Amino acid sequence: MDDSKPREPQELYILVTGANSGLGFSICCRLADEFLSSHHYDDSLTIIFTTRSARKAEDTRHRLEAHLQSSTSSSNAARVKFVSESVDLGDLLSARALSRRLLQTFPKLDAIILNAGIGGWCGIGWLEAIWGILTDLISQVTWPTFKLAHVGVLTDRQTEKEEEPVLGNVFCSNVFGHYMLAHNVAPLLKKANSPNGPGRVVWVSSIEGTINFFNIDDIQGLKSKNPYESSKALTDILALTSDQPYTAPWAVDSFLSNDQTDEKDQVTEENTPTMYVSHPGICATSIVPLALPLVWGMVAAFWLARMLGSPWHSMSTYTGAWSPVFLALSSQGALDAAESPYRESGGGRVKWGSSANRLGVGNVCSTEVDGWGHGGVVGRAVVESDRNRRRKRGVVDLTAEAKGNFEELGRQCWKQMEELRIKWDAILDRAEKDKGAAVAAAET
Question: Which ranges form a coiled coil (predicted)?
Answer without folding.
Answer: none
